[in-house]
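Sequence, please.
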């Protein structure tokens, strides 16, 4: 069970070819005592970083590599293994893989990146990458096999030619002669027959009549004529006989002619085939070299590789029992011996154990859309130990070659020593000219200070000034000055852009999102619109100096500006520095069940229908009760067909089957091309470059992720304020709205919150009426607490708010912290405050403990229990109360919500409520414009509820979209179900005059009604 190492391994990221999870590969390798293991997925490095970390954790050396697809001279797709020896090699392969994504071929619904020799030569320098000749589809095997394939084709054609006729065949020529001589004879006979027929057809009636006259008048003449007549009659009689004989002869000759001619025709067809086959052989033999010729070609190919790789080029030997391997591998081994090329043995690992071959076959069948039989070789693609591997090779190779190849494994494993450095690749801010700003810290300070007059027209107080200074220091010391400058830059670009396309009016960026709202510097830079000190939002929740953490500024954009803003970043930071993030789609739930049924249908075509019906039934059983355990479903469907489906589905669930693009995440690099840091993938569907690892691994590689999220409410509000400006000339600054009691009273407290952000649900509306929010703090509280979990505290809060119950605090300081949430601990910030103000912890430490509690790292937060109790007892609590309170906090911590996020979203809630209250017609028109057609009935009902009149569509009045006229909203033509784009055509034609009748409409507008 011992293996020194593995140099050729495929994971699930070899999409639809291998079912292996990275963790399982590493675990198995560890179990087998391997020192090193390579990951060589087909054309991709999607598993690299995850694999690297998993190996490091298990104490196995990771070798990062790829089995690239490479075009051969005969234009087939061959394989080549690249393995990184060190970090330079990592970067070389990373760039080569990225560039291969510029040559994507679409095969069996999959994107196949094609590596070229030019790419290899461009990036592989010196001694940093080991290249091996890969499998039986590899670069060298292909030359020998394509020759062999041609030879086999020639041989098979030659064999078929035995059945064909050569045009020079003597039998055919004789027959052909025979036919023509028969033709002559038939013609001759026919001519003769025709002549005789004339004689045979003669009749002698007239002559006999005149003979009787002669008898009376001239006897001598009579005698003469009589003799003459008798002679002629005799002749005719004989002619008749001859004609019938000749007819028979002709018939016989014709019969034999038909027979022989048929043989000739048949032969001619086979001759045609013969000629074609001759031409095909001629064509093939032109391509066909001798085996020796092919060997020379292989040697030439090897020399090409060694010319720039030297001893880093290996010939890889494999044997999985394929006839092709038995032919190719011994030849390659002897060439290696002759040319002194190092050998390496490998098994083409696609599965852990023999028994897993059926799951691999399942995913491969999905790829090729037909049942893929399990061949003998398919069962051999498992992780073999050294003994199994060398035994397999010995079946087809001489002992010395096998020994050398096994030693090759050790050589490669020992010479690959990749260490990925922990370098940060944080983006660098660039000025308007595209130059990196040297002193970004100074610039950040300058820009932050510049924001003061706008945010605090009356000047900033001491508390806030101190907070700003504190934050600036931490941000700068932790190295995030550039990051904040970049975010501020694109946020401001998006705001300007939104205004630009709306003739000065637009609201393209949300007030904030996530923990970023807790940072006053963000507020001063214009990244967020919530004043953090007022609402007790904590900076440490955003950036904790006691924890090396990535800050996370997520920004919401209107759809109108989102793409344009990402484009702006591409322009500014360079296409080589900006990329999206890869996601992975997996075999899941009902889909995998349906696929399993499909696969079994292919496997047992006779029972196809049965499987398919059953698959659908099981699939819907799973979806109808999402939490139903698979065991329960098993009980329900316990016949053997269902067993089969479920067995495959459960084992295949969770296996990767496609790569996608993260909806919002964007990486901006530090100026060094991203493809040197992480391999890039080109997603053809989205036409976008993405990093080949996921979000977390991207951050682990030192990159900063920025979220560009789309939020439709921003489009709604933008539409509304543009309409308000157009109709009333009022320009509304949404980022600076006054909090008005009347909005809280009329919209929120009355539950009048249809179309109000975050407050739309029926349950929420009922709760609002009971709660009766009166302030912005109340709105934040409800955004944070109306969720499963903290919802249970709401009835208590209502009681306390309406003074029907009194909140109890074990020490008075708690009232300051929990008063605004009516005695409950709802926010993470409150939890941190309790630790900080009541128990004397630093805010950074408090943030750490909060994280331990929410992540249920019990042993870590339990360590803090005693210090907490001591701290709070010092403030005056009894030990018993303190203990009890600790337990309560542990409970609260499970649900505690990020107040920064709640506050920023509560701003949007207030903004939408404000617009709805003051400008209902414009607001609802904005809602309708942005609505999906299927949601229109809900919004139309909401219009009715707030007395906004919506007119039915009018062919002569309605615009393409909803619009306002005479204080009414007119239905948009394109928003009528089924009309869509045709609305545009109608409006275009209407410019030529109103439609006067339906007939007029039909005649003037060319719309395909069938569509
Ligand atoms: Zn291969
Ligand atoms: Zn392979």
């Amino acid at each position: 069970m011992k293996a020194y190492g593995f140099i050729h391994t495929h994971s699930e990221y070899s999409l639809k070819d291998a079912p292996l999870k990275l963790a399982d590969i590493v675990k198995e390798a560890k179990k087998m005592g391997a020192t090193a293991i390579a990951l060589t997925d087909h054309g991709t490095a999607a598993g690299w970083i995850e694999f690297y970390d998993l190996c490091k954790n298990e104490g196995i050396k990771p070798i990062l590599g790829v089995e690239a697809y490479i075009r051969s001279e005969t234009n087939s797709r061959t394989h080549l293994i690249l393995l990184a020896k060190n970090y330079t090699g990592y970067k070389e392969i990373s760039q080569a893989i990225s560039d291969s994504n510029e040559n994507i071929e679409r095969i069996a619904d999959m994107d196949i990146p094609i590596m070229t020799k030019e790419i290899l030569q461009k990036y592989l320098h010196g001694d940093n990458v080991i290249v091996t000749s890969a499998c039986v589809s590899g670069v060298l095997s292909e030359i020998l096999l394509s020759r062999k394939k041609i030879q086999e084709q020639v041989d098979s054609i030659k064999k078929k030619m035995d059945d064909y006729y050569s045009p020079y065949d003597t039998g055919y020529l004789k027959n052909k002669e025979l036919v023509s001589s028969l033709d002559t004879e038939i013609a001759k006979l026919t001519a003769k027959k025709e002549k005789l027929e004339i004689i045979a057809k003669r009749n002698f009636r007239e002559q006999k009549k005149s003979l009787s006259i002669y008898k009376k008048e001239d006897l001598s003449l009579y005698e003469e004529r009589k003799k003459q007549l008798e002679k002629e009659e005799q002749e005719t009689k004989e002619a008749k006989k001859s004609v019938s004989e000749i007819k028979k002869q002709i018939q016989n000759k014709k019969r034999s002619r038909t027979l022989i001619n048929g043989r000739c025709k048949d032969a001619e067809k086979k001759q045609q085939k013969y000629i074609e086959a001759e031409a095909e052989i001629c064509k093939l033999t032109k391509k066909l070299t001798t085996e020796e010729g092919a060997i020379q070609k292989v040697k030439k190919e090897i020399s090409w590789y060694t010319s720039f790789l030297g001893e880093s080029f290996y010939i890889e030997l494999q044997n999985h029992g394929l006839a092709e391997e038995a032919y190719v591998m011994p030849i390659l081994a002897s060439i290696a011996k002759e040319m002194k090329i190092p050998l390496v043995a490998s098994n083409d690992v696609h599965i852990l154990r023999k028994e897993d071959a059926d799951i691999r076959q399942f995913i491969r069948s999905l790829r090729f859309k037909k049942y893929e039989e399990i061949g003998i070789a398919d069962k051999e693609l498992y992780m073999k130990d050294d003994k199994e591997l060398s035994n397999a090779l010995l079946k087809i190779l001489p002992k010395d070659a096998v020994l050398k190849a096994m030693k090759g494994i050790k050589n490669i494993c020992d010479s690959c020593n990749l260490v990925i450095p922990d370098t940060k690749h944080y983006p660098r801010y660039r000025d308007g000219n595209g130059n990196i700003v040297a002193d970004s810290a100074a610039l950040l300070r300058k820009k932050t200070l510049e924001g003061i007059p706008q945010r605090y027209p009356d000047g900033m107080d001491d508390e806030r000034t101190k907070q700003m200074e504190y934050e600036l220091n931490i941000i700068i010391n932790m190295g995030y000055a550039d990051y904040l400058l970049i975010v501020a830059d694109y946020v401001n670009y998006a705001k300007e852009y939104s205004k630009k396309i709306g003739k000065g009016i637009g609201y393209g960026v949300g007030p904030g999102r996530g923990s970023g709202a807790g940072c006053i510097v963000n507020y001063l830079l214009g990244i967020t619109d919530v004043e953090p000190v007022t609402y007790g939002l904590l900076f440490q929740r955003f950036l904790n100096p006691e924890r090396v953490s990535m800050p996370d500024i997520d920004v919401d954009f209107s759809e109108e500006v989102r793409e344009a803003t990402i484009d702006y970043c591409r322009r500014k930071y360079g296409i080589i520095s900006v990329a999206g993030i890869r996601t992975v789609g997996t075999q899941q739930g009902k889909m995998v069940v349906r696929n399993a049924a499909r696969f079994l249908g292919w496997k047992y075509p006779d029972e196809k229908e049965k499987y398919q019906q059953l698959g659908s039934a099981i699939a819907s059983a799973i979806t109808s009760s999402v939490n139903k355990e698979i065991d329960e479903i098993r009980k329900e469907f316990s016949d053997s067909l269902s067993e089969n489906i479920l067995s495959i589905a459960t084992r295949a669930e969770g296996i990767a089957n496609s790569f996608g693009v993260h909806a919002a995440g964007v990486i901006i690099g530090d100026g060094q091309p991203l493809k040197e840091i992480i391999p890039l993938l080109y997603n053809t569907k989205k036409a976008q470059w993405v990093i080949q690892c996921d979000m977390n691994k991207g951050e682990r590689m030192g990159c900063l992720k920025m979220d560009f999220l789309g939020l439709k409410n921003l489009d709604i509000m933008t539409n509304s304020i543009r309409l308000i400006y157009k109709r009333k000339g009022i320009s509304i600054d949404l980022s600076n709205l006054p909090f008005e009691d009347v909005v809280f009273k009329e919209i929120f407290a009355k539950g009048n919150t249809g179309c109000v952000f975050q407050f739309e649900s029926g349950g929420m509306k009922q709760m609002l009426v009971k709660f009766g929010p009166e302030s912005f703090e109340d709105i934040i509280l409800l955004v944070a607490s109306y969720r499963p979990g903290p919802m249970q505290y709401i009835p208590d809060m209502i009681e306390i708010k309406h003074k029907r119950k009194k909140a109890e605090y074990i020490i008075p300081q708690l009232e300051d912290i929990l008063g605004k949430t009516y005695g409950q601990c709802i926010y993470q910030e409150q939890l941190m405050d309790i630790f900080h103000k009541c128990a004397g912890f630093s805010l950074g430490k408090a943030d750490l403990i909060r994280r331990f509690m929410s992540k249920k790292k019990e042993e870590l937060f339990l360590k803090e229990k005693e210090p907490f109790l001591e701290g709070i007892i010092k403030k005056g609590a009894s030990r018993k109360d303190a203990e009890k309170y600790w337990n309560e906090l542990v409970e609260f911590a499970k649900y505690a919500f990020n107040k920064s996020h709640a506050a920023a979203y509560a701003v949007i809630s207030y903004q939408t409520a404000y617009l709805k209250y003051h400008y209902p017609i414009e607001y609802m028109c904005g809602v309708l414009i942005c609505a999906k057609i299927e949601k229109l009935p809900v919004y139309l009902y909401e219009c009715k509820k707030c007395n906004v009149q919506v007119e039915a569509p009018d062919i002569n009045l309605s615009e393409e979209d909803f619009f306002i006229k005479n204080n009414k909203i007119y239905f948009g033509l394109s928003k009528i179900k089924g009309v869509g784009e045709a609305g545009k055509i109608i409006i275009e034609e209407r410019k030529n005059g109103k439609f006067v009748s339906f007939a007029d409409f039909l005649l003037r507008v060319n719309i395909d009604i069938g569509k």
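The chain has five domains: 5-133+308-359+371-415, 440-584+661-710, 588-653, 737-913, 920-1004.
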